[in-house]
Design goal:
about 450 residues; Ubiquitin-like (UB roll); Creatine Kinase, Chain A, domain 2; 2 domains; nine-stranded mixed β-sheet; six-stranded mixed β-sheet; Gln_synth_cat_dom; ligase; Gln_synth/guanido_kin_cat_dom; Glutamine synthetase; Gln_synt_N_sf
């Protein structure tokens, strides 16, 4: 469970405290202090260059007109958020602030806190759940196994039982709510589902889970890739988010007279998510590797539509049934691990709120494979240059994310285009296989 006092942490064997942010490229970066400096980490924070936010996947820096070599920001943590993530090490998510403690323009965690404020102002509550897909690797970053793979198979999972038990135990110690673990469709692929939580807590859990999965794997001589496409021609990894919304009268996605029990505000929320997908795809899946995953037939949500339990739709609706313990929700399937989880949640919830505010009408459901529909819905344009240009010029993105975040995110992704865009996909997958690993 989270530990907050120096005495509790010392008794638990903690010697080192980490505080991290996730940058605009989706990479988690941290600073560490001895336990005796915990109070300073919380009060004053640890200094970082503003360029941290525009570090790139290969450690290049995408300077912008407003982010250069000058200035100083701080990472501040709340000791109440500390979790033990490795032997002797406790970690907490950090806020990026100026030297006076005010949120920095590029603090994505503070931006998500603002979304929680917007929810409260509307009399709404939100729960967000996450599914993390990753690929288990050998120490040399190649395939962990050469045996025939059985998706969801007992053999393929029990062959890694020591690692999975270690992961489960370490997550329990850290107070991380793992709901389900299974081996996935792709060779050596693993999926970990997390319990729903408030938006900031859910994004924090994604960051914690990626660290815990990586550390548990390392203890068993393995490595973990959170790349959207670790190997050319093989299965990609998603980072799906689920969203439920409620007001004083109950859930918005159930209890009504609309499709599958939706209430009018729930219909508008889904309509808002769908309407803004082309504008916000650069947030959800904007990396140089994202287009290789986001294709029809990959169950990645490449179609701009919704459907009940439709895994090819960008928005998969899960109805309130006895088989759904957390109630009706909507899943954004196209998010991949290159996305900053705080920004992805901002975009997802923000677009849903925008739909509610504008009372948007829900488009017709696509109940089957969109590619085989009599009137196929539009497929999302996934070319990275197109995606980033849409983000850069979108009034919706400017409204939800702010100019500073868009400028930085566009710079980071354009750096990827310039550096990797002309390379064969096999070379790029190899170069970035561990870029998002923790």
């Amino acid at each position: 469970m989270p530990l907050s006092t120096e005495e509790e942490l010392r008794a638990a064997g903690v010697a080192l405290v980490a505080g991290s942010i996730t940058d605009l490229a989706g990479v988690t970066r941290a600073k560490y202090v001895p336990l005796r400096r915990l109070e300073a980490f919380a009060r004053s924070g640890m200094g970082v260059s503003p360029s941290w936010s525009v570090f790139c996947v290969d450690n290049g820096i995408a300077f912008t007109p407003n982010v250069g070599v000058e200035g100083d920001l701080r990472i501040r943590i709340d000791p109440a958020d500390l979790r033990i993530v490795d032997d002797g090490v406790a970690w907490a998510p950090g806020d990026l602030t100026d030297q006076y403690g005010e949120p920095a323009d590029l603090c994505t965690r503070s931006l998500l806190k603002g979304v929680e404020t917007s929810l409260r102002a509307r009399g709404l509550t939100a729960l967000v759940g996450a599914e993390l897909e990753c690929t288990i690797l050998a120490p040399d970053a190649g395939h962990a196994t050469t045996d025939a793979w059985s998706p969801y198979g007992v053999r393929t999972s029990l062959d890694r039982s020591a690692f999975l038990v270690d992961l489960t135990e370490s997550a329990e110690r850290a107070g991380l709510g793992i709901e389900q673990i299974h081996t996935e469709y792709g060779h050596d692929q693993l999926e970990v589902s997390l319990a729903p939580a408030s938006p900031v807590a859910a994004a924090d859990s994604v960051a914690a889970a990626r660290i815990l999965i990586g550390r548990a794997a390392a203890r068993h001589g393995l490595r973990i890739s959170f790349s959207p496409v670790p190997f050319d021609g093989e299965a990609g990894n998603g980072a799906h988010l689920h969203l439920s919304l409620a007001d004083d009268d109950g859930p918005l996605f159930s209890g009504g007279q609309g499709p599958h029990g939706m209430r009018p505000a729930g219909e508008s929320a889904i309509a808002g998510v769908l309407q803004t997908l082309p504008d916000l795809l650069g947030v959800y899946a904007g990396s140089v590797l994202s287009p290789a995953r986001l294709k029809p037939g990959n169950w990645a949500g490449a179609a701009q539509c919704w459907g009940l339990e439709n895994r090819e739709a960008a928005a998969r609706f899960i109805a309130a049934t006895p088989g759904v313990p957390h109630g009706a929700n909507i899943e954004c399937k196209l998010i991949d691990p290159s996305a900053n989880p705080y920004l992805a949640a901002v975009a997802f919830i923000g677009s849903a709120l925008r739909g509610i505010d504008q009372q948007l009408a829900l488009p017709a459901e696509v109940p089957k494979d969109p590619a085989k529909a009599a009137q196929p819905p539009p497929m999302l344009q996934t070319d990275q240059e197109t995606v980033i240009k849409a983000l850069e010029t979108s009034p919706v993105a400017a409204e939800l994310l702010g100019e500073a975040v868009i400028e930085g995110l566009v710079a980071v992704r354009r750096y990827e285009i310039a550096t990797f865009g002309a390379l064969p996909l096999a070379d790029t997958t190899r170069a970035l296989r561990l870029a998002w690993s923790c």
